[in-house]
UniProtKB/TrEMBL annotation:
Gene3D superfamilies listed in its UniProt record: 3.30.420.40, Actin, Chain A, domain 4
Protein's name in the database: Heat shock 70 kDa protein 12A
Keyword Amino-acid biosynthesis in record: no
Entry GO MF terms: ATP binding; ATP-dependent protein folding chaperone
Keyword terms of this UniProt record: ATP-binding, Nucleotide-binding, Stress response
One family name in Pfam for this protein: HSP70
Record carries keyword ATP-binding: yes
InterPro entries reported for this sequence: ATPase_NBD (IPR043129), Hsp_70_fam (IPR013126)
Amino acid sequence: MPTKVEGDLNTKTKTILRQFKLHLDEGYSKDPLPVQVDLIRAIADYLKAMNSHVKGKIMNDNHDSYNQQDFRYCLTVPAMWSERAKNSMRQAALLAELINDFDHPDRLLLVTEPEAAALYCQLKCTQFDLGHKDRFMVCDAGGGTVDLIVYEVEKTNEGTFLSEVTKGHGASCGSIFLDQNFKRLVQEKFSSQGVTLEPKPLNKIVENFVEHVKPIFESDSDHALDLPVGAYLSQVRDPEAIEILDGSMLFSRKELESRVFDPVIEQVYSLIDQQLSSARDCTAIILVGGFGASNHLLARVRRQFEGLGIKIVRAPRPELAVVRGAVYAALKPKIVTTRVSRQCYGIRINMRFREGIDGPLDRKEFSHGSYCHNRFKCLVQKGQKVQTDECISTTIMCRKGTSNDVLLPIYAFSGDGETPDFIHSKGMYRLADIRVKSAFSPSDPLDTKLEYQFKMFIGRNEIKSVVLLKGEEYAASIDFDSEQADNKNK
């Protein structure tokens, strides 16, 4: 998604929103948006405008031979995003009318950006031949985030497939942070001359850096940037001290490398190190994404890691790897057969009360004994390999009550170490509620019982669920925004 959108906020002026998709990442410390605006609405407005443009182009080129319902959509998301953030993208797509509530869930696919890039690389990278059981890392260095994941190639009679070796992870350290570092450098230079730059000239200088320096920077030459004309230039006490000459400002390769590029590239090093420590025998690292197209990033990663016997290459047209990979994912969504669980998932259960172990507040008395009603039952461990079509099933018995919904709360544990025994343990939180309409009839007595079988698919890019009752399948929704669900979904 491009990093800016224009929105009419019912005023006489318009406000440009930049990099607003990053605000869905709960772990990213960011400045507030410049105006009060609903984030999901802003994303939906962008998607709606983009969809209208693309649909119009397709219809014009194909003489209106397509129906809106013929389209399948595939949206890419960072690997580090939480289930809640991914669900917010789905809600934005609904709000943008790309899909509706009655569509099959697979009419809109969400795929992580490094996974989309991996599909592209597996088809388009000819620099080396990946054989059965070979492993490769995709480093998707984009504008806002850098996402990484390691895949293993599986060659079978049915074709070539990919299996996750490590759980994808990343950080907000994409190329826009180069822009921020450069902006601070410029402000410091002018501040040393007693000049506080106004936003307009400052933003123009940063734009010149983005267009003329960032794409071609290599650590063997200095760079001069044209400065916008303005009164601020006459306020500089000693232009030569900050290397201003004839309306241009010189930036040395040393300061650009140390002040602008190094802080970001060192974060990329750290992310690659973490992946390599989790995945042995990695054959290659493939750089993709807009930042992945940087010659400087490629040279630095090679300098850092080629000594380990790993081949570092850049995918052809790296800036298009994710979007083209998303098309491949939509055409053949089952190329990835196994994924690694990002965290531990489970449910709350009642178990026999253990004196001296279970807390007194967790005790609940029943006619047939004392039970601890806040015990955690793990369904999928963090780091566990899960087949994409693997069904994890649990059954709950419900009595007829006053609610119109049957709920199965899903809990997640994001920490490391042993899985806790209780749902209120540190690091445990209520991720979401799986909801299905109650099947009790008005004539059923209050003590009527029904057995619901909840079937969950956690190995996909989004958690999916269906419910079986008396052999029939019922549609289930996953609510990340219920009053009970923890607002710190991860």
